[in-house]
């Protein structure tokens, strides 16, 4: 009885290996589609029927990623139910877990950016590519997502000074760089939650950018020194 069961489990794991390998790029498309749907809902302000249809489409994408996380848990089998298995699962799938748990709260809708980043996971193969994505992709997406999220929270609220996308984008840029001119600022609780997340994440992203530039400068200097040593030796 053990052999057939073991054979079934092994076959199931091999099928999941093939599945995980093939779905990464579709996931990237789904991630950007998720953000696109949210953008249309906020910026275009479509009629209720269209808005609800778009919300249904975003829910479908959300649950596709949820099923993916479930399949990755099943892939571990009995190993998932050990302490080491759970810790390992969280380490390997923290981005997928965060993208499912955090954006469920309305005030954290800015973290829909995590859904997009989950789709970019196949490009995070090494530290250099991760830093490049942080600087070249994550930062622009974070600013954009924060802008439409705060616009959704602030628009139509009495006393709010962020009522259109250009103002929201200006506020997001000023906040993520920690400049904070103060001419545009959120007045709602949801808007302030978004601002807090944006400023905290912005500090981390710009720290990453600084570290990347420093490493590049040091690497170039070291390269020149090695070339000079080789030239002197010859």
Automatic annotation (TrEMBL):
Organism: Aquiluna borgnonia
UniProt keyword Ion transport, yes or no: yes
Pfam families tied to this protein: Ion_trans_2
Subcellular location: Membrane
GO molecular function, one term: voltage-gated potassium channel activity
Keyword Cytoplasm in record: no
InterPro entries for this protein: K_chnl_dom, VG_K_chnl
Membrane-crossing segments per the record: 25-44, 56-75, 95-119, 131-151, 193-219
Name under which the protein is recorded: Potassium channel family protein
GO CC list: voltage-gated potassium channel complex
Every Potassium channel domain range: 148-217
Topology relative to the membrane: Multi-pass membrane protein
Annotated keywords: Ion channel, Ion transport, Membrane, Transmembrane, Transmembrane helix, Transport
GO biological process: action potential
């Amino acid at each position: 009885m053990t052999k057939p069961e073991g054979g079934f489990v092994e076959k199931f794991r091999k099928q999941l290996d093939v599945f995980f390998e093939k779905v990464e790029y579709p996931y990237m498309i789904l991630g950007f589609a998720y953000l696109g749907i949210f953008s249309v809902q906020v910026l275009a302000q479509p009629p209720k029927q269209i808005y609800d249809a778009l919300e249904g489409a975003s829910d479908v994408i959300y649950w596709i990623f949820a099923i993916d996380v479930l399949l990755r848990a099943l892939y571990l089998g009995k190993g998932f139910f050990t302490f080491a298995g759970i810790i390992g699962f969280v380490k390997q799938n923290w981005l997928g877990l965060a993208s499912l748990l955090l954006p469920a709260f309305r005030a954290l809708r800015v973290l829909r950016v995590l859904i997009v980043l989950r789709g970019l996971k196949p490009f995070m193969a090494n530290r250099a590519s991760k830093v490049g994505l942080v600087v070249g992709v994550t930062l622009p997406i974070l600013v954009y997502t924060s802008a439409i999220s705060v616009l959704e929270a602030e628009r139509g609220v009495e006393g709010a000074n962020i009522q259109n996308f250009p103002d929201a984008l200006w506020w997001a840029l000023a906040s993520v760089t920690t400049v904070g001119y103060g001419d545009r600022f959120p007045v709602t609780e949801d808007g302030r939650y978004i601002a807090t997340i944006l400023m905290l994440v912005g500090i981390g992203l710009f720290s990453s950018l600084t570290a990347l530039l420093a490493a590049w400068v040091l690497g170039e200097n070291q390269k020149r020194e090695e070339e000079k040593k080789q030239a002197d030796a010859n």
